[in-house]
């Protein structure tokens, strides 16, 4: 059955500032889009976030997970609604410019670029931590090498990116299924642990939600790549909501498995929660599988992250908000090759210097600002472009602001400082008399 919405012609919005820049090729279907969204989420959510969330909230991490999922759902509907109307590269950077004004778009785009570059460093460090347990320069070197290798894959075009993401996600989900079933068969629930244990109180729950939001932030990755999706008006909304729904189920199962095996306190103290979980219930033979699954999942998240940042940088460069040379599209691979090279270099440098948990908080702040602007932009849509009630946009804005404000204060300070640096740099770059 064909709806009246899908029968209308798509609204292809031209890129305004650099008309001689070639467009990217539409090569991604619905399955590819879902896989890219899952690749962005599963690595981050399962292997990097549950420990700090448990440290902030104890048993309240499940309330934090539910709150993060609700905010993510509101943000996902906003992103899906906007992406259907503006099927081009850049995500909320483009939506903010079109619906709210250029400064709103710039703030969203800059928050995304700096926040997701920190996310890329976090995923590279997570990969290195599982693939090469221990500390020292060799682990950092492996993280840097991972960033550069996956940057090279993205350079070769989006079809290579989608194929690699599909393989990585399939292996990750298979590993997680084995571990979750095995651990829960041994220990289905935490024995003797009180369910009501909120060491940080309501504030701790909110802080855990802000940290766990980091895990959900990949659901709209495909919106930043909207210029490469076939039939974007239908494909992007379906892919965003499907990827988010699958991820919520996966996170809930893995979170319960970790608490069942380790308890909230043990989970909070763990640097490799899934590995520690299988060891805690006497499943030592599964430890290598966990290490492999974690390493592969982190690579999948890193791959999709770099691709999303590259497309946002492309859109910003087209409008002069980043150096215009980054708007180049490779004549053969149809990828934003210069942006991919620069982003990979910056992410590699971040992986060489940043701390994992600090990178997660910093990233969450930047991305929450990004999605707050997405909700504001979606609120202005009306008529046939509106697919969900405005109340969801209001909830999304409030949720993003609250979660950003309750992150660990160093992350809030660093994130606000990074946004200020971007704003000041844009003010300096603007010539007198030029439109904002």
Comma- or semicolon-separated keywords:
disordered N terminus, about 425 residues, globular, Amino acid/polyamine transporter I, 16 helices, mainly alpha
Tell me the domain tally: 1
Major beta-sheet overview: none
Rg? 21 Å
- Give the amount of beta strand, in percent: under 5%
CATH architecture label: Up-down Bundle
**SS class:** mainly alpha
Spatial shape: globular
Tell me the name of the CATH class.
Mainly Alpha
N-C termini distance: 45 Å
State the order of secondary-structure elements, H for helix, E for strand.
HHHHHHHHHHHHHHHH
Q: Low-confidence parts, pLDDT < 50 over ≥5 residues?
A: 1-19
CATH topology: Amino acid/polyamine transporter I
Mean pLDDT: 81
> Number of DSSP helices?
16
Helix content: over 70%
């Amino acid at each position: 059955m064909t709806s009246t919405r899908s029968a209308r012609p798509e609204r292809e919005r031209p890129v305004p500032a650099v008309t001689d820049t070639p467009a990217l090729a539409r090569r991604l279907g619905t399955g590819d889009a879902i896989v890219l969204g899952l690749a962005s989420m599963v690595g981050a959510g399962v292997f990097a976030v549950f420990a700090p969330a448990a440290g902030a909230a104890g048993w309240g991490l499940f309330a934090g997970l539910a709150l993060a999922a609700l905010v993510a759902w509101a943000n996902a509907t906003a992103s899906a609604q906007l992406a259907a109307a503006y099927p081009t590269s850049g995500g909320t950077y483009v939506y903010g410019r079109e619906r709210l004004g250029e400064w709103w778009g710039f703030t969203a785009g800059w928050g995304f670029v700096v926040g997701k570059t920190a996310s890329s460093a976090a995923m590279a460090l997570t990969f290195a931590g599982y693939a090469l347990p221990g500390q020292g320069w060799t682990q950092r070197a492996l993280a840097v090498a991972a960033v550069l290798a996956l940057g090279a894959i993205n350079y070769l075009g989006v079809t290579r990116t989608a194929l690699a993401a599909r393989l990585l996600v399939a292996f990750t989900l298979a590993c997680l299924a084995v571990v979750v079933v095995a651990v829960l068969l041994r220990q289905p629930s935490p024995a003797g642990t009180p369910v009501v244990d909120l060491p940080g109180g309501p504030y701790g729950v909110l802080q855990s939600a802000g940290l766990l939001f980091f895990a959900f932030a990949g659901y709209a990755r495909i919106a930043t790549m909207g210029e490469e999706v076939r039939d974007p008006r239908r494909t992007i909304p379906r892919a965003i909501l499907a990827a988010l729904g699958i991820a919520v189920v996966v996170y809930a199962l893995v979170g319960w498995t970790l608490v069942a095996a380790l308890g909230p306190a043990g989970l909070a103290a763990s640097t490799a929660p899934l590995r520690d979980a299988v060891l805690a219930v006497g499943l030592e033979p599964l430890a290598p599988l966990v290490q492999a699954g974690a390493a592969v999942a982190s690579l999948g998240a890193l791959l999709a992250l770099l691709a999303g940042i590259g497309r946002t940088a492309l859109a910003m460069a087209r409008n002069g908000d980043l150096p215009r040379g980054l708007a180049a599209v490779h004549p053969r691979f149809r990828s934003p090759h210069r942006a991919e090279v620069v982003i990979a270099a910056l992410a590699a440098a971040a992986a060489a210097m940043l701390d994992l948990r600090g990178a997660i908080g910093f990233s969450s702040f930047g991305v929450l600002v990004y999605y707050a602007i997405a909700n504001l932009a979606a609120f202005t849509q009306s008529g046939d472009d509106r697919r969900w009630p405005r109340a969801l946009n209001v909830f999304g804005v409030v949720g993003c602001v609250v979660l950003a404000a309750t992150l660990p204060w160093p992350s809030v300070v660093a994130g606000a400082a990074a946004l200020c640096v971007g704003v000041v740099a844009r003010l300096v770059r603007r010539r007198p008399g030029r439109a904002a």
